[in-house]
Amino acid sequence: MSDSELEQLEQWLDEAGTRMIDGDWSLWQDKLSKREDVTLLGAYGAHVTGWADVQARFERTAAGYAAGGGRSTHQTIASWIGSDLACIVAIERHETRLDGKPATFRYRVTHLFRRENGDWKMVLRHADPLVTFLGPQFAHFTTQAEDVA
Amino acid sequence: MTATIKATEIPASLQQTLDRVHSATVAIGRGDPEPYMRLWSRADDVSLFGAWGPCKQGWDQVSQTFRWVATRFAGGELRCEDLIVNVSGDLAYTVGYERGAMAVDGQEPEPMSIRVTQVYRREDGEWRLVHRHGDFAPIDQSAGKLG
Predict the structure, then answer these.
(1) What's the pLDDT tens digit per position in B57-87?
(2) Is the separation of the CB atoms in B100 and B79 below 8 Å?
(3) Strand partners, B84
(4) Of A32, A39, B123, B124, which one is least surrounded by beta carbons within 10 A?
(5) Residues A2-28: pLDDT tens digits?
(6) Chain B contact for A53, CB < 8 A?
(7) Is the pLDDT of residue A147 over 50?
(8) Is the separation of the CB atoms in A53 and A136 below 8 Å?
(9) Coil/strand/helix, residue A52
(10) Number of CB atoms found within 10 A of residue A44's CB
(11) In chain A, which residues have their Cβ closer than 8 Å to the Cβ of B62?
(12) Residue B16: phi, psi to the nearest 5?
């Protein structure tokens, strides 16, 4: 993978995330691998593997956002590039609205991409809310809403 | 337990490392972080999203966190279940769970289930961990698994 290919994936992440929080998951539909090992470890929990199940989960998640608008950006923490695999580790920041008020949510994300027939496809999204640590029992049930105006 | 999906043949060298990671995970669950730490790269670009919250970068921070984690475990057997193993060239990753009845901070053992993605890089012929993303898998809160 070249630096420009990595840069393209980085740009894709922001664009795809921004569209997702507006209820449109079409960029993910295109970028996700259609193979049996495509996997989502999402904020809803558990794991979803295989294109049919992953597709259903993304569809429903997008419907939950329902054109709420906002912007998704990320800060890359590390990336590793192999011949046909690449990994980007980042903090993803969703600036959106919650109950009509501006709210920012941050997620820890690990994305894995694989080159399939010349195109880079996403084979894994692992995302969980970045929380102020309160204890293991709270780790998943307090989604951080910071900067609430 | 679901069978592991392996998109490509897993080289013997990687399988050996994965087997060591499985043993090392049991060890850290018993309070000994050393075998797990030995399997990590010492490079500046290692990173950790830990299940108990920390986001750490670089070996100093990451290793300190593993030592802290090990001090919290007071018994139990933490077992790895790899759902996905993928490798290409000098990069590989696994997706799965670590589960066990774990005693934490001196409390009675309770079931623990950690969702884990781990990334490996081959350095001088040896597979080394460069990233761990672990979180406490919530019970699936969606309306039904497939909606």
Answers:
(1) 999 999 999 999 999 998 899 999 999 999 9
(2) yes
(3) B5, B95
(4) B124
(5) 888 999 999 999 999 999 999 999 999
(6) yes
(7) no
(8) no
(9) helix
(10) 18
(11) none
(12) -60, -40
Are A14 and A75 in contact, with CB atoms under 8 Å apart?
no
Q: How many CA atoms lie within 13 A of A34 on its CB side?
A: 4
CA-nearest residue of chain A to B140? A45
Q: Is the dihedral of CA B9, B15, B17, B23 positive or negative?
A: positive
Q: Which residue has the tokens 């295989």?
A: A50
Would you give the end-to-end CA distance of chain B in angstroms?
23
**Token pair belonging to B3:** 């069978």
Q: Between B52, B54, B133, which is nearest A136 by CB?
A: B52
Question: Could you tell me where the DSSP H helices lie in A1-149?
Answer: 3-20, 26-31, 51-65
Cα torsion through A114, A117, A119, A121, rounded to 10: -40
> What's the gap in Å between the CA of B17 and the closest CA on chain A?
18
- Identify the CA nearest to B118 among candidates B23, B32, B39, B44: B39
Element (H, E) at B49: strand B47-49
Residue with tokens 């399988």, as numbered in its chain: B15
Give the separation between CA A62 and CA A32, rounded to whole angstroms: 15
The pTM score is 0.90
Query: For residues A109 and B99, what is the distance between their CA atoms, to the nearest angstrom?
Result: 22
- Asked if the Cβ–Cβ distance from B131 to A49 is below 8 Å, we say no
C-alpha–C-alpha distance, residues B3 and A116, integer Å: 23
